[in-house]
Design brief:
Layout lengths: L1 H28 L2 H8 L3 H7 L3 H26 L3 H18 L1 H13 L8 H19 L9 H23 L4 H16 L5 H9 L7
Helix pairs in contact: 1-2, 1-4, 1-6, 4-5, 4-6, 5-7, 5-9, 7-8, 8-9, 9-10
Keywords: DNA-binding, Transcription, Transcription regulation
InterPro entries: ArpA-like, CprB_TetR_C, DNA-bd_HTH_TetR-type_CS, Homeodomain-like_sf, HTH_TetR, Tet_transcr_reg_TetR-rel_C_sf
GO molecular function, one term: DNA binding
């Protein structure tokens, strides 16, 4: 068990080092020698767990996706309503981008390696599917206007958040990401949320510290 724990810790150390390299340099700019430097492990330790830079990149994407889905599960278990869950999922994604190198690297790699087919599209598909289900429940509960199509809303939110975080990264290193997210909700919620839910949702959207943990 101790040997397995050490192996798992080393693997995670390699992933974190790879994430730091991929985040800063992208897939094309990152090198195995640079990853070794960031991870502070031996070449043998790296190759024991990953056979190539490509394998490392896919592992970072997979880990980032797992972290996002786990966070979504925690939000779903604690949110008071489907609409609150949608807002809190977006806020948790913002928090992860600001605090987790693996998430930042995974998002960058997903964009760089993504195609119309393949593993790099899985995070977008699963994220969209989660939001479709939540939006459907919100409409059934009267939290969303009856005219709102859950699938269209989910696609819009995933696309909007993806573009928002990219612009925020380019202009401010994502330091204004929470503000941009609050602006998005302030503009969007009045047109999609039921009047009874709107005040609570706008209040929740504006809170910076009320982030799923």
């Amino acid at each position: 068990m101790a040997k397995q724990a050490r192996a798992a810790a080393t693997r995670h150390q390699v992933l974190e080092g790879a994430a730091l390299s991929f985040e800063k340099l992208g897939y094309g700019g990152a090198s195995l020698s640079g990853i070794l430097s960031y991870a502070d492990v031996t070449k043998g330790a790296l190759y024991f767990h990953f056979e190539s830079k490509e394998a490392l990149a896919w592992a970072v994407i997979k880990e980032q996706h797992a972290m996002a889905m786990l966070a979504a599960q925690r939000v779903l278990a604690t949110a008071q309503s489907p609409m609150e869950a949608i807002l809190l999922c977006a806020k948790e994604m913002a928090r992860q981008l600001l605090t987790e190198p693996i998430v930042r690297a995974g998002v960058r790699l997903t964009l760089e390696l993504g195609t119309s087919r393949g593993p790099a599209t899985d995070p977008y598909i699963d994220w969209t599917d989660t939001l479709v289900a939540l939006a459907g429940k919100a409409r059934e509960a009267g939290e969303l206007r009856a005219t709102v199509d859950p699938a269209a809303l989910a696609r819009f939110l995933v696309s909007s958040f993806t573009g928002m975080q990219l612009v925020s990264e380019a202009l401010t290193g994502r330091s204004d990401l929470y503000e941009r997210l609050a602006d998005m909700w302030a503009l969007l919620l009045p047109s999609i949320a039921s009047p009874d839910m709107l005040p609570r949702l706008l209040e929740l959207a504006a809170l910076r510290d009320d982030v799923a943990s």
